[in-house]
Amino acid sequence: KAGVTQTPRYLIKTRGQQVTLSCSPISGHRSVSWYQQTPGQGLQFLFEYFSETQRNKGNFPGRFSGRQFSNSRSEMNVSTLELGDSALYLCASSPTGSENIQYFGAGTRLSVL
Amino acid sequence: AQSVTQPDIHITVSEGASLELRCNYSYGATPYLFWYVQSPGQGLQLLLKYFSGDTLVQGIKGFEAEFKRSQSSFNLRKPSVHWSDAAEYFCAVGGGGNKLVFGAGTILRVKS
To answer: Shortest Cα distance from B2 to chain A (angstroms)?
Structure first.
């Protein structure tokens, strides 16, 4: 089975731009969660989607949004980028019935200049 | 609120020596506990998990962890470290849906 796939692996944007990151979960997994990883704040939960609905949300501003499609693929969008949004964004998927067991992708490294 | 503390930011051990990485958690109910490992530039790989039952859990790559409710701890151990174990290790707690709270991580260095 293929693992969690995140695209692109690397992105460079400038302040004020917006960005969209993509995540394809493991086949059959319907839950997708997103995390932000920075040296200063560590790993922080952004949000979780299950069956196209946001089920959990972390403490991030509204500039961070996401969605999930009927095939469970998920996208995360950050609008009006700030320098502090530079981070590794990790996506994880979970099998139904095994909540909390999360399998992570390799991440998207976002650099905001 | 859930929280996880990993007291050691860096640990250096010699190849072949034993390893213990510490993790303390705060959670009101029975927690789900995890250890993940991250190599540079990579995502997180699940090493092991504890949900209930036997408090000593075995994971991949020869790692094990022991849940001690009285100490709110979930320490990771390995009897003999290999150079390929050098990485960053994260302890995490979950309990409310698919939202994990991670510790700050411990960077393991292995010297030959």
So the answer is: 12
Tokens of B9: 């930011």
A63 token code pair: 């500039």
Q: Cα(A50)–Cα(A91) distance, rounded to whole angstroms?
A: 13
**Per-residue pLDDT tens digits of chain B, which is 112 residues long:** 789 999 999 999 999 999 999 999 998 777 899 999 999 888 999 999 998 888 999 999 999 999 999 999 999 999 999 999 999 999 999 866 778 999 999 999 999 9
Q: Distance of alpha carbon A103 from its chain centroid, rounded? A: 13
Structure tokens belonging to residue A35: 């995390």
Closest CA to B28 of B77, B101, B106, B90: B101
Contacts of B44 in chain A (CB under 8 A): 90, 92, 104
Interface with chain B: mutation pick from A100, A108, A111, highest number of B CBs within 10 Å: A100
Q: Name the maximum alpha-carbon separation found in chain B.
A: 42
Closest to A101 measured CA to CA, from A109, A110, A91, A92: A92
Nearest to B43 among A31, A101, A105 (CB): A105
